[in-house]
């Protein structure tokens, strides 16, 4: 049964009227590298010449500032509008992480406060003109996901991130079904950590198995966008706050990101 569509507030529509395309990144469970994928997708869009923004709506685990080297920064508010932080390659960024006094602070909010914060990220931020916005959602298929999918106007579609393990793909299948019930297009599925590629010798090893995400895409008739290898340099770059696709553009993982973004651009008609 599909979920009833809620009316999107006019404030959100007005704030995001000049954002041409909106892509939501979602995973059925945590620990699959969803935020790393979302930030590097945003950077890859920017590298290909698109004005880009990323909104981190994972209220309880806002890790985007860390991955982009923006920890400790705070947005400025002028004339009842919040100006997003400018990240690498000019990408506009908004995250709960910018509003915490200390990066180790926990957000102990119940559902209504979380929903209000998400709404403000969409309505009160001066996003301006963007070719594409990437929204990094919290993991799972709970109320927050429903609220976000019902709050973003004219979503182009959802990208599902999974790892090769069957338990992760099982949760990815649940995420696909949830998105279908919401009446939002699924742009495709990405299999992260699909293989380990030795940075020294180039040999490939399927540590976690492989193929389950592609099988899920076939079963639910969604596109398989591609696989991303497990590269130790991704973790090192993330910890240092440097997007991997910028630090190691010639690496296999960076090339895969570029290929996936090219596919997404064709799907949503972005240029």
Describe the structure.
The chain has 271 residues and is α/β, with parallel strands linked by helices. The protein has a single domain, classed as P-loop containing nucleotide triphosphate hydrolases (Rossmann fold), CATH 3.40.50.300. It has 10 helices and 11 strands. The chain has helices spanning 10-15, 34-47, 64-67, 111-123, 143-151, 166-182, 212-219, 232-240, 244-247, 252-268, and strands at residues 19-26, 52-56, 76-78, 81-83, 85-86, 92-95, 130-136, 157-162, 186-197, 204-205, 224-230. The strands form 2 sheets. Strands 1, 2, 5, 6, 7, 8, 9, 10 and 11 form a 9-stranded mixed β-sheet that branches. β9 and β10 form a beta hairpin. α2 packs across α10 (252-268) and α4 packs parallel to α5 (143-151). It is globular, with a radius of gyration of 18 Å. The N and C termini lie far apart (35 Å). 46% of the residues are buried. The model has no long low-confidence stretch (mean pLDDT 86).
């Amino acid at each position: 049964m599909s979920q009833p569509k809620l009316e999107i507030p006019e404030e959100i529509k007005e704030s995001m009227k000049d954002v041409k395309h909106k892509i939501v990144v979602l995973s059925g469970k945590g620990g699959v590298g969803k935020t790393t994928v979302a930030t590097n997708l945003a950077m890859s869009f920017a590298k290909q010449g698109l004005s880009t923004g990323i909104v981190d709506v994972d209220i309880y685990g806002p890790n985007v500032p860390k991955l982009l080297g923006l920890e400790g920064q705070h947005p400025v508010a002028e004339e009842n509008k919040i100006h997003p932080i400018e990240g690498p390659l000019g990408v506009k960024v908004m995250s709960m992480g910018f509003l915490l006094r200390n990066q180790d602070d926990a957000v102990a909010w119940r559902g209504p406060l979380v929903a209000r914060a998400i709404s403000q990220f969409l309505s009160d931020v001066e996003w301006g003109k963007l070719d594409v916005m990437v929204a990094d959602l919290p993991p799972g298929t709970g109320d927050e996901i429903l609220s976000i999918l019902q709050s973003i106007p004219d979503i182009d579609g959802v990208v599902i991130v999974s790892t090769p393990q069957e338990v992760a793909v099982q949760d990815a299948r649940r995420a696909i079904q949830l998105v279908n019930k919401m009446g939002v297009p699924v742009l495709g599925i990405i299999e992260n950590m699909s293989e380990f590629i030795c940075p020294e010798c180039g040999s490939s090893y399927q540590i976690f198995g492989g193929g389950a995400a592609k099988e899920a895409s076939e079963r639910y008739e969604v596109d398989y966008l591609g696989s991303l290898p497990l590269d130790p340099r991704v973790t090192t770059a993330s910890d240092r706050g440097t997007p991997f696709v910028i630090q190691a553009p010639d690496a296999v993982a960076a090339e895969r990101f570029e290929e996936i973004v090219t596919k997404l651009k064709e799907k949503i008609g972005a240029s």
